[in-house]
From TrEMBL:
GO terms for cellular component: cytosol. GO terms for biological process: proteolysis. Keywords: Hydrolase, Metalloprotease, Protease. It comes from Candidatus Cryptobacteroides excrementipullorum. This is TldD/PmbA family protein. Residues 247-479 form the Metalloprotease TldD/E C-terminal domain. GO terms for molecular function: metallopeptidase activity.
Amino acid sequence: MDKQYFLNTFRVTVPQMEQLTKTALARGGDWSDLYFENTLYGDLLLKDGEVTSGGLHTDFGVGIRVLSGEKTGYAYSENTGENDMREAAMAASLIASGSARTHDIPKPGKGLSPAFAPACGGDVLYQSEIPWESIRAAELLPFLEKLQERISSADSRVVKIVARLAYSHSDIMMFNSDGELTFDSRPMGSVTASVIFNYKGKTENKTASRSFRTGAELLTDSLLQELAEEAVKGIDERFEARRPKGGRMPVVMGAGASGILLHEAMGHAFEADFNRKGQSVFAGKIGRQVCDRSISIVDDGTVRANRGACSFDDEGVPGQKTWMVKDGILNSYLHDRISARWYGVAPTGNGRRESFRYNPIPRMRATYMESGSVPPQDIVASVKKGIYVDEFSNGQVKIGEGDFTFYVKSGFLIENGRLTAPVKDINIIGNGPQALSDIACVGNDLKIDNGTWTCGKDQSVPVSCGIPTVLVNNLTVGGE
């Protein structure tokens, strides 16, 4: 990537940015950084064959952060005029110095920076062969129309289809008081089909989606077919499903979308801000065994074209693969620069933000459990009586205690090692650390789900999740 392109996009020079960080530190802060963003957003919604909404807009600006001990000052400007940026830098400086400074965070060497090249674009984890900004909305409409046609023709019980295409392209440039300049271009394309079915007076719904960091080359005939097939898959079982008898029992979680339980019930508890504040059930447990040694859990910013991929995080730290749990041992928290300095370790590339209007905090990227060695059919066959689940929604988690509740959208009874009657309207209730320690088998079929996952933790950021088929020996199933 061309450094001059980014400097021209944001109409700034390196000397200007150097002066801005000095202005931001004028009241004595430890470190400051600048985050420039220029994002084009597009959206097109087709409901029952008619375009009901659509739009195109640009978000442009710079966020300026100052760190002073435990105190953070943050301000932003929606333009990059010299006077406006200077005012934002002064505001951030004033906020950071607005209370007595603490010195609980040690300051190693040179500010908050890891060791990497001072001016660079990231590894090419994503690219746009057909840039979204080169395509008119009218050219995108036929894709959604074909998607609706294929879904409608695939099942006679379809009564309503809502198809949506959302896309964006972000140019990001970051500079800090250590003189590091980093930049990144981030494409994103997302397609969602929400379908309502009616059969003999009963209504069911299904959603299928795909999201990747890519350009308009995403919109292929194979994607159309994949989404259409997924949108109607399993509907017979949904109409037949009943609420089973509840209780404590073994639960087999299917590969792929079941990874949302891993993200919510365990991943958040590994984020370093919760741990350094003592709010996570995993606080102080680095180096301890937390589950069977067959289990490794990863948060990965390097999965190519993945929705959660980051060539650089939003603090300018290179994207990387982080083992939170390695061979059953709690190996690492997910760090931004602040928590990394507090723990005296290198940042893991997890400092993320919704936009230039937000301060970065530790966030997940693509979170998954690595494959084990057991064939998934053998895992099911090992269960005499339990349930199999493969799609969750509406989860609730208490980070401090680790307790979770998830609503199951689809699943089956397991009886004598076989999947039998379909089930619905049940909750899975448990405790994250306990569930982790109760995992008895890990399948050899890791699947990363490429749906439109978005994580909300005061801010919204794109993520993905995945898991192989796993057996949890003892969870509470809320049924009849």
